[in-house]
Amino acid sequence: MKRFDEKVAIVTGGAGGIGSAISRRLADEGAFVVVTDMDLDAASSVVAEISASGGNARAVRTDISNGLACADLVSDVLRVNRHIDILANNAGINRRGNLLDLSEGDWHASFDVNLHSMFYLCRAVLPHMIENGGGAIVNTASQWGLHPAPNHIAYNVTKAAVASFTQNLARDYAPHKIRVNAVCPGEIHTPMLEAGVKRSGRTIADLERLVPFGRIGKPEEVAALVAFLASNEAQFMCGSLVEITGAQAVA
Ligand code: NAD
Questions:
Q1: What share of the chain has pLDDT > 90, as a percent?
Q2: Closest ligand 1 atom, CA of 21?
Q3: In the prediction, which pLDDT does 235 show?
Q4: For position 73, what pLDDT does the model report?
């Protein structure tokens, strides 16, 4: 028996670095995974990979900054897959800049993708999880939501809000056995990180020197933590914000 046999999971940003690793991990452990992303081709490639290794998944295009699209996604999964046991709210964008550098569009887009999507998806999923007697929601926040790095105010504020959203939701829905937790990664080697490194003029080697563990993190390491939090092994974890950083302090 695998940890997620007979479970259905939605993973947002499922085509990205961390999201594809979460999708593969949950599928490897028996879940049926709905890999959802703006980029349908990339999500379909993740599904093809999962299918090739014997897992079950399907790709759905959703722009999670749109409330109606989020509601449609949840209705579609309930119609096709009948239940939703795990929601991994993972998609995010990182618009660099201090308050004067950022455009109003960047500010709003950061909130729409990083925070409002969680409001839309959780509102759509919670009534079903309540009726079903429980569920697990794992949000991807960031270490920078707890300890802000300079020149990323929009990103950091949205991730701080994700942390608070997680704790609030956990308190309100723990009586229904819905466990809500968040992972707070440090530097993880993904397309988002590569884009950030390019913009800053630094190199991956520069970043690695700042991590006491000696290297930056791998998407699979975050995926393993998400899988643990989504599993029954984390039965009493509810409202936790778990940092995964290689002991790096924010500089
Ligand atoms: P990534 O850029 O590789 O993946 C993000 C995915 O989200 C992409 O596939 C993108 O298409 C999708 N996406 C973006 N906007 C969307 C929208 N409106 N609707 C649907 N999908 C959308 O990034 P990643 O590094 O894998 O990041 C995943 C999560 O981890 C994010 O929430 C990010 O903030 C968080 N995080 C990453 C790091 C890191 O170092 N990489 C550190 C801390 C937190």
A1: 97
A2: 26
A3: 98
A4: 98
pLDDT of residue 7: 98
| Mean pLDDT across 26-41 | 98
Active-site choice (4, 32, 155, 173) = 155
* Prediction pTM value: 0.98
Domains observed in the chain: 8-244 (3.40.50.720)
pLDDT of residue 177: 98
Q: Copy the structure tokens of residue 189.
A: 């080697």
Instruction: Write down the pLDDT at residue 190.
Output: 96
Residue nearest to atom 19 of ligand 1 (CA): 63
Binding site membership of 112 for ligand 1 (Cβ less than 6 Å)? no
| Cα 63 to ligand 1 centroid, rounded to whole Å | 13
Does 251 have pLDDT greater than 80? no
